[in-house]
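Before surveying the methods themselves, we first show a specimen of the format, giving the amino acid sequence and backbone structure tokens:

:::
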Amino acid sequence: MVRKYLALLAACVFFSLSTTFIISATPRILTSWRHVIVPMEQAVQFIYDKLSLARQGMHPDAFRKALFGYLQFKQLNKLSGKTLLTVIDFSLPSHRPRLWVIDLAAQRVLFHSLVAHGVNSGLHYAEKFSNKEGSHQSSLGFYITGETYQGKHGLSLYLDGQEAEFNSNARKRAVVMHAADYVSEAHIAKMGRIGRSQGCPAIPEHLAEGIISTIKGGTCLYIYHPSPEYHRTSQWGNTSNWDEQLLAFLPFPI
């Protein structure tokens, strides 16, 4: 009987040690009360694929940086309780839909729309950017949406730039989101491109009220372009500042 007991005890010890070794040898997975956190790139790719953003034309780096920045702002409690991320991909020409409003909690794209760039940023493509008043150029980077107002373009949305070197003068420059008749398929059919603004991310008239009413009041908006100067300088959405703990701020488990 004693021998059987000792054999059983030895087997239990061996199993415990083996299990400990196996667990310690597996990749590190962080956990929070709501999430299992997987490696950064795996999480980004999962959401990018889930939303079919490649098929819709969004550059993968645009989404990667937008999501990183969104999580950074969430961590700092700079955003409202809405789980919305708006991405404008200015690597695309203006005749293509290049604005996305994404509901991260629902894991779906709410809007995919045309959007204008500034008249002095380029013709078909936005290629030059500025934070200066009177430049009539678009400004790159992260914004937090503000309040709405009724202006000459109807319902419009204030944007608060979060990056001192790139978009902090958005309010001073009256860079807002508004409707414009030149952001339309009709204008593309006539000119081969949409019209241009004075720096505002102008959107189609028939979508303006829906988009603006959805994203107003403290949501994250990111304007992307593969500009080396911007990506070298910006602290937001920068992968070198990545902390895996940020994924705990995703509004759904990975």
Summary: The domain at 29-249 is CATH 2.40.440.10 (L,D-transpeptidase catalytic domain-like).
